[in-house]
Major facilitator superfamily (MFS) profile domain-containing protein (Chlamydomonas schloesseri), 570 residues
Amino acid sequence: MGDPKALDLDAEKAHEKTLQHAEDSLCSAMKDETEDTRHRNFLVRFFIFLGSFMIPGMGMFCEAYFVFAVGNLSALWKIEYKNCWKGIGCPQNLSNSITYTQVCGIIFGQLVLGFFADRIGRKWGSVATAGTMVVGAILIISSAGPTEKALWAMFTAVQFIFGIGVGGEYPVASTSANERAESSAALQKRRGETVVLVFSMQGWGNLVNTAVIIAIMAGYHQYHAPYSNHALEVTWRLSYAIGLIPLIGILLYRFISLRESAVWTKKREALKAMGGSAAKGVQWRKFGLLMYYYWHRNFGTAMSWFVWDFAFYGNKLFQGTFIKIINPTASLIQVLEWTLLNSAVALVGYYFAAFTVDKPWMGRMRMQVMGFAWMFVLFLICAVHYDQLKTPKYIHAFQFLYYFSSFWGQFGPNATTWLLPAELAPTELRSMCHGFSAAVGKAGALVAGVVFGLVDGRTKFWISAFCGLAGVILTLITIPDVTGLDLREGDKRWLAILDGHHHLYHGDAIKPRHLSLIERLLGYGKNYQASDAGSDDGYSAANTFKAADLPPPPIVQKQGSERAVTAVTH
């Protein structure tokens, strides 16, 4: 038998080696991507810049194009299929049935595809979401039946299939954009901008869909009643078919040309170096550690998204009210033109968010608080002065409040609720955490649809206002501001948690300014030590804990591979 002290020394050395190798794997991801953002020709630089977010954001463009189409086309369907949409031979509230089915599919996709994207990788997760959307889109366009009831039964059912792809696109697109910025020296300090610009393609999808419908109707001279059923039929099917073209293109691009995320790949190598892939039950233990150390972050991002979608749904419900007051005889095209204007105003908000979210004077948390605060104020004004705002005398004031709330919604919680869930979670669980928060957010839209159907107009605005106030409180308590934080620091902290030595991590991920109020109260920042090699802005990739500082594992196995597993599972 060997000397027990010698065995302990050997185990300690092996332990140090595996941890150091794991940490080195994370650091090497910085060298996997390079980007030339300084081409001499201004036009070339500009088009490179556009391509940097338009191509990754085409999935969000396509999902928004199809999702918002239901609201844009419902007025046409009520005319073309008037008996069915009045409940004669078809379910009552057919429009709600379509929306709810779609949202249920989205929630399912966010949870399931978000979970699997952490396991199969960002590339194949992206291919799966695009492929599902292509199948769903083809079925939507080809919806048919011997009766109107059969047609709309098929149309409603296939919305669930398309919704699954949409749901998967949320976590996959956000995590991929975060990791692309994390692995690029040119984009690392513009991570928030990179992610929000990808998300801004959602706004373009909404705007382009509205414009396409207007253009097709104008081509058929459908400016006012009476409308041609044939023209309306061609309008909605052709508008969907046009949206299918970029969707097929993005599927082919992802399948042929998309590269796997370097950050995701290196993180898996780091975990394998620690023996995590061989440890029995380690996956469930990771979920337990995630809930223990990150529950407040997941709760904060999920509930912030919930109250945002709840209030946003209330905002959308009132979209046509002021149009009817301004012009009671507004035609289909006129209503769509007002919708187009609102989409354009909202789109401006995306870019205000993108180009300020990384600024030290703004950041994620301030932006979210600011957006929720404006929502509270604007919806509160609408609730208090509801009766006056409904009159023709004050309708333009109501119109301003409506558009202004749309702007602050995008320049605030709509951007940050999509950005933060992926930033606040470790790489290996990033997609799942984002999918969970997004699913809770979509549940807010479902609940709002039920609640707002039971209350009057004034009460809707009261509820939406206090959702804004709840968002402010949630953000101040549970959301950390990770502006300027290298996300690899978060992964180093996660490796220390998996190894059972969270208290020995001293890096920037637990710097007080990168922690939420509740995390500071829980004492997560007490072990922070400023790195001598790190810069003040938090972008240093320097080592933040040394394997040599760690004690040997409490249980030492005889075989080297088993020793590494023990380091993860003890």
